[in-house]
Amino acid sequence: MKKILIIALMLTGTLTFAQNKNAKASMEVDGICGMCKARIEKACLNTKGVKFATWSVETHELKLIFDERKTNTEIIKNQVLAAGHDVKDEKATDEAYAQVHACCKYRDEAVIDDHEPQGR
Q: 17: which of 27, 49, 110, 120 lies 20 to 30 Å off by Cα?
């Protein structure tokens, strides 16, 4: 019985240390402007365990550093969706998307054209 207890404690310790407190991840998130950038990053940084979040307007890549003991990419993705922004394989609800500012309607071709630099 004592051996089983020791083995169980060792496995628990190993599993605890297997989680990274500075895990890195990236994901594709749709958006169109600086206001989108602020909203996406805020949604991530308001998630417990997220230490760093930066989203690129040009590449649509969201880079993250987070504590796996407190959160994971699925939870972070759900926060981004709740903020009204689509991720690579999933769309935000219509209700969440409706809450983004009119100039941030990245699904609307006219808004996309308005954000294009002149001369293209």
A: 27
Q: Give yes or no for a contact between 44 and 62, defined as CB atoms under 8 angstroms apart.
A: yes
When the pLDDT of each residue in the chain is averaged and rounded to a whole number, the result is 88
- The helix (run of H) or strand (run of E) holding residue 73 is helix 73-82
Look up residue 107 and give its two tokens: 């699904």
**How do residues 50-108 score in pLDDT, each as one tens digit?**
999 999 999 999 999 999 999 999 999 999 999 999 999 999 999 999 999 999 999 98
Query: Three-state SS string across 92-120, please?
Result: CCHHHHHCCCHHHCCCCHHHHHHHCCCCC
Question: Are the CB atoms for 115 and 75 separated by under 8 Å?
Answer: no
**Does this model's pTM top 0.90?**
no
Q: In what order do the strands lie in the sheet with 50-55?
A: 23-28, 61-66, 50-55
d(CA 14, CA 111): 51
What sign does the CA torsion over 111, 112, 118, 120 have? Answer: negative
